[in-house]
Amino acid sequence: MKYQKIVVFCFVLISLLSQAQSKVYQSEREKIHDLVHTKLNVDFNFENKTMNGEAWITAKPHFYSTNFITLDAKAMLIHQVSMNNTALKYTYEDGLNLIISLPKTYQREEEFTIYIKYTAQPEKVYQKGSVAITSAKGLYFINADGSEKNKPTQIWTQGETEASSCWFPTIDAPNQKTSQEIYMTVPDKFVTLSNGALISQTKKGNNRTDYWKFDQKHAPYLFFMGIGEYEIIKDSYKNIPVNYYVEKEFAPYAKDIFGLTPEMMGFFSEKLGVEYPWNKYSQIVGRDYVSGAMENTTAVMHGEQAYQKPGQLIDENVQENTIAHELFHHWFGDLVTAESWSNLTLNESFANYSEYLWREYKYGKINAEMHLFENVDAYLNGQSDSKDLVRYTYDDKEDMFDLVSYNKGGAILHMLRTYLGDEAFFLGLKQYLNIYKYQAAEVDQLRLIFESLTGKDLNWFFNQWYFGAGHPNIEISYDYNTLRKTVTVNVVQLQTAAFKFPFVIDVFEGTKRTRHTVFVDARDASFTFPYTKQPNLIQVNADRSLVCEINENKVLSDYIFQLKYADNYAHRREAFLIIAKKQEDKDAFNAVVYALDDTSYKIRILALQQIDLINKFSKKDVIQKIMDIANTDSKTLVQAEAINTLGKLTDPALKPIFEKGLQSKSYSVLGKSLVSLYYVDKPSAIAKSKQLPDEVRKILATPLTRIFIEENDESELPFVAKSVLSGMYLTGDDATKVLFQKAFKQISETNNSEAIQNLVDDMIEKGNQYKGFNFDKVVINLMRDMIKEQQKANKPNRERNIDIIKTAMARLL
């Protein structure tokens, strides 16, 4: 599973609610029975948002003989339980556990099949779920009554962690594995998707029954149903069908969004030495999805942020990392599954690291370094250093889905790969996958495979990185002996528990770099290296493989050298941010100009954002350089930032650059050009803003809002209102939040009833979507603020606007 920026606000709420860790041991689910096969026959009541189901559950005792079985079944109506047409006694008093008496005592390996007729009632399920879920109800009806004219009717499921039991009786634990069959009866206009192969379709009047069959075994949380009016765009990998299920509007762009999937399948298969293990690979996009994406076996679900138009894709496919992430789960998570949520790292850390592997292969070392830096930086700034990676004492299983399991875990795998070497690392993964395929595993089993393969004892590594918390906080100092021509690097760990780790140190003598790899095995350690001439720079953690924080004293000249010659993106970025604060110094300013040509496009963007053009040094030449970047940089995102930088000069002479940008296929270039043009030719920018197609205006909501709010354009407030809530709460950009807070204030005070209505409609939708995390209360407080502002105003529509807001509040309260 992958989380996106859309749920950042909810992550903040979760972190506030989950500060204290329980000390109750969270064990693997005891295996009293083993699931063998699950057969379902279902149809749907759209009006009531319920599902009529029949289930045939085949199971057997795991070891000890039994005369009863307990199935997870949440908030269901149980109509019949039988075996071979004979009714069975059962109890179902808590609405959670269906306890069934068997007709005899069954021995180990003796299979039996129970028939259950039931009604699933997902709207009556109340349990904590993944980020942004009101309730983890397993089965979701989207616009079931068709009342929302701009939203399609869909049904989809979300099983992780233990919500599959909201729509079929099962043993809802990750250490269970079962094959499956599902018969889905739906209105004939709908397309269906499930795990495995579509065997048959049978028409029944206006309805149709689709029969999906999956012969291999996987965990119950990976079961999936998706239903809606979709176009199916067909692709393939070798002889395996690869299909993309998208709404009609996005069918022309489906391969632009998902089309690298077959290449990813080939790359991961070759890298792991294990071919893609399933019979198909489908990806579907769902409305109002409760997470970023989910790795349901052979039937991956993506949230609607996956939908992108060519003008966005030319800048960056924001879903590409997620596409790789969910695909890699088909080895790590689906083929071999973490036996308990405590061992979630065996699923999510690998999927996280797959993003690095893909970017390294497809786009090169620098691109992969940028991705790894951002992952590690998010962990280091996420106040998560008190949590073990393997956590047997979590408060709630949902708390495992965090920056430790994902970001830190992926970075730890990178450290392990660096320490063992590529050959051993990937051969170990191959052995792990082959030994435990279609089974569940725990972290120590992974360790033992690496130990057996390499002959190394890895307890020290796993104990501190998997079964411990935190990371090294290191203070570095240097001692030079000019007579002996040596430099001693002193390493002092400041955190409570000392770590052991390999440490890479680069010594630069001019442009000559000598790399040393040492091993730190104590709180204080020192390493001495010879040199021929006085080193220009000592770069510690030079490969950035160690997850740590480093404190060292460097002067400006060190950082200027580091920006120019450091091997790793993160070190150059670190140097740039220091240098950018000192641009009153000519050498520092020139270094910022130098960064405009950095091999990392993200450093080029930083340089454009932070260059001081008020500075007296070479201003004319630098502006010409930025103009060239705006026209020719290989990345449209850099072109866009160059135009934004030029726009801050408010120089009419630059108008041709902005006008040219308006012709760009890139939405980022178009958006920045509009805002920059606005400051030198307001009438032209406003006219262009109003002429854009609606679909483009929606995508460019932020730059257009900047223009319309600054222009105080009442006629555009209904448009602005649709993006206000997302802009205020669901982005990570502080400047955007401030902009939309200003927009919210303007709409709160307006006489424009259409704008008021659009804003409160969006508030109702998002308040309900994030209700489980109290966002509905945030929204209600905002509505109260709107009423106060309307009451202050003496405008014709005041009472009407107040009534609109109060009606919306009543729908949420």
Give a written overview of the molecule.
By secondary structure, this protein is of the alpha+beta class. Among the domains are: 343-466, Neutral Protease, domain 2; 473-553, Immunoglobulin-like, CATH 2.60.40.1840; 714-812, no CATH class. The chain is built from 28 helices and 29 strands. Strand 1 (33-45) and strand 2 (50-61) form a beta hairpin. The longest helix has 19 residues, at 345-363. The radius of gyration is 29 Å and the shape is globular. The protein starts with 7 loop residues before the first helix and ends with a helix. It comes from Polaribacter filamentus. This is Aminopeptidase N.
- Categorize the overall geometry: globular
| Structure classification | alpha+beta
| Arrangement of strands in the largest sheet | 5-4-8-2-1-11-14-13
Low-confidence stretches: 5-21, 130-134
CATH architecture of the domain at 343-466: Orthogonal Bundle
Ends distance: 32 Å
Oligomeric assembly: single chain
CATH topology title of the domain at 343-466: Neutral Protease, domain 2
User: How many beta-strand segments?
Assistant: 29
Mean of residue pLDDT values: 94
Question: Main beta sheet, described?
Answer: 8 strands, mixed
CATH superfamily label of the domain at 343-466: Neutral Protease Domain 2
Helix content: 25-40%
Q: What is the alpha-carbon Rg in Å?
A: 29 Å
Q: Under the CATH scheme, which class of the domain at 343-466?
A: Mainly Alpha
Number of helices: 28
Q: Work out the strand percent.
A: 15-25%
Domain Aminopeptidase N-like N-terminal: 37-217
Enzyme class: hydrolase
Cofactor: Zn(2+)
Protein name: Aminopeptidase N
